[in-house]
Amino acid sequence: MLSALIDFSLENRFLVLALVLLMAVGGAYAAFVIPIDAVPDMTNVQVQVITKAGALSPLEVERFVTYPVESTMSGLPRVQEIRSISRFGLSVVTIVFHEGTDIFRSRQLVNERLVEARERIVHGSGNPQLGVLATALGEVLQFEVRGDGYTPMELRTLLDWEIAPQLRQTPGVTEVNSHGGFYKTFEVTVDPDRLSAQGIALGDLFAALEQNNSSAGGGYIVHHGEQRFIRGQALLKNVADIERVVVSK
């Protein structure tokens, strides 16, 4: 059999070369056009409810957050399984639906129950949110933001306010998670002795900072057919603005 195949190939060289060329063209076409995934996504239809529970212990997260969410999601149509994970400061409830259920319909049903779940959770224990529309087998792309002369705070600000919003507009991007760097924040270090000497309570300091960091609208004025809006802006933008805040009893 093998000898006959070799003899046939030698006698029909041009036919064999043509078949090899056609197979090469077909393979190149399949590599670039046919959507074949080397690792097929076998994840079932599931919706996750994620709650950040602050500094609660796993036992408190299970009692005050996870259980109310699980009990609220019970009874949804076509639900196959509800499982959960309670960790320090984090609750993840996974609602698995039967195969063939529309994922967008499932997310809508879960989102409608979130209103009731938020009411059943102890105040201050967390705010449950829907997880992203992605699976564990989804593609993950990691990148770094670098720049000479930039501090880690400036790089993090650039990532959160410039780069990430543009990436979320890209088709196929589900979520952009930021790690590293420093949040742009202003911290006020309190001297208890000086506050006590002036007879000012710590709450007075909080109230002064809050009242001097806001903006308000004042309607508009019509001038020559144009509407000119009136706004009162008192937002703290830098350290100098914070230093000018007046703290009184």
Would you give an account of this structure?
- The chain has 249 residues and is α+β, with helices and mostly antiparallel strands.
- It has helices at 2-11, 13-32, 58-73, 103-120, 152-168, 192-198, 202-211, 239-243; strands at residues 46-52, 79-87, 90-97, 129-130, 214-223, 226-234.
- The strands form 2 sheets. Strands 2-3-1-4 form a 4-stranded antiparallel beta sheet.
- Helix 3 crosses helix 4.
- The longest helix is centred in the N-terminal third of the chain and has 20 residues, at 13-32.
- The radius of gyration is 30 Å and the shape is elongated.
- The model has no long low-confidence stretch (mean pLDDT 86).
Question: Which key features would you list for this structure?
Answer:
alpha+beta, 249 residues, two-stranded antiparallel sheet, single chain
Report strand order across the widest sheet.
2-3-1-4
The whole-angstrom Rg is 30 Å
What composes the largest sheet?
A: 4 strands, antiparallel
Output mean pLDDT.
86
The helix-and-strand class reads: alpha+beta
By oligomeric state, this entry counts as single chain
The number of helical segments is: 8
SSE succession:
HHEHEEHEHHHEEH
Shape: elongated
Question: Could you tell me the number of beta strands?
Answer: 6
Cα distance, first to last residue? 103 Å
Helix content: 40-55%
Poorly predicted residue ranges: none
Percentage beta strand: 15-25%
